[in-house]
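Troubleshooting log. The previous structure file for this entry was overwritten by mistake, so regenerating from the original sequence record. Sequence copied from the archived sheet and checked twice against the printout by T.R.
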Amino acid sequence: MVFYLTGGWTGVIITTCLFLMVTSSVEFIRRSYFEVFWFTHHLFIVFYGFLVVHGFSKQVRGQTAESLKVHDPNVCSKIPEQWGKVPECPIPQFSGSPPGTWKWVVVPLTLYIAERIIRIIRYHQNVNILKVVQHPSRVVEIQMRKKGFHAEVGQYVFLKCEQISKLEWHPFTLTSAPEENYFSCHIRIAGDWTTALSKLVTDANASEKPVLGVDGPFGTASEDVFSYDVAICVGSGIGVTPFASLLKSVWYKNLNEELTPKLKKVYFFWICPEINAFEWFADMLAHLESQLADIGRRDLIEYHIYLTRGWSTKQAKAIFVHDDAGQDVITGLDQKTFYGRPNWDDVFKTTATKHPGKDIGVFFCGVAALSQILHKMSNKHSSLSGARFHYNKENF
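Regenerated output below.
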C-alpha cells in the first residue's frame, strides 16, 4: 500500500540512486572504470528531483496549532485513556506537514546551474591548439592558447572533446609555467578517452584539429610555494606533473634581476616506480639544468630522483659499469638517480639544519600512504626556535 503513496515510491527511487552513487565511489571503480563513476554520479539530478517531491503526500503528520491550544501534549500524554473524556484533553487533531525540502535544495541547485552555465560559456570560447608533441611512454603534450586564460603554478583544467563524448570532462594538470604565452597538458594514454584524444590530435591526415573545451583553471596547494623561503617538493609517480609548472616558474622568476623572489631554495624529490615514467620529465629537467647553469643558479633547485623498482639485471649491470660517468645512465642528467626510497627522517633533519629559523613549505602530490609519512615528518621536525615545516598536499 505504501508504494501507492508519493512518499513510498519516491523513497525507493532516491534510495536506489544513493546506493548506486555510493557504491560507484569506491577507489577501484573511480580508477578502473571512471566512466561508470562519472555517469552514475549524475543520478544526483534524479535524487534531488524526487527528494523535493518526496513529501508532497504529507505522510509525516503533526498536531495542528489549533489542537495544541486545547490539548497540551505535556499534560495529556500522561493520561491517554482520558482523551475525549475530560475537557482539558480533547481528541488531538493531526495534519500533514507541507513539503520543505525545496528550501534546502534551491540554493545549491541555483549555484550548480550557475556553474553549468559558466562551464558552457567557457566551452564555447575558442581554444587554439598550437602544438602537439608525442613523448615516449605513450605521453602526448598538447600546447594551447585561449583568450583571457591565466593560470598559476600547479593548477589544473578540465578538458572536453565533443568528437569523443558530448558529456565527459576530464581533469589534467597544467605543465606550463604562468610566464609562458601558452598553456599545456601532458596526457598519458591510459584509457579509452585518452586513447581517442591522442589519435585525434596526432592524426596528420586530418583536415582540421579537434575542437577542445577548456574549463578552469582550478587551484591547488602548489600555488603557495612562492610564499616560503625554502620548499620541499615531492612527486610520487604521475604526481610529479604539477611540479613541471612549478620548477619552470622558479627559473622564470629568477631570470629578471629586478625581482627578488622570496623562494631561495627548492628541494625536489621524485619517487618513481618505473624507468619509462622518467622520460618526458627527464627531458624537461635536462633543459632546466642547462638554463639554470646559463644564469649561474644551478644551486637554486636541488633534485633527487628515486627509482623504486622496474630495472632488469642487464640494466643493473649497465648502471654499475657507468657509475663513474658524468651523466646518469637512466635519465642522462648530471644528478645521479638513487635506487630505493628516501630516508625522510634524514631529509627533514638535514633541511632543518641547513635552514634554521626559516619557514619551509612541503608540497606533495601522489599516493595517500606517502602523504601521511611526509605530514608526520613535517610535524616531527618543526620547532619554534628552528625550522618550521608547513605541509601542503594534493591527492589524485
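The chain has a mean pLDDT of 79. Archived copy saved in two places this time.
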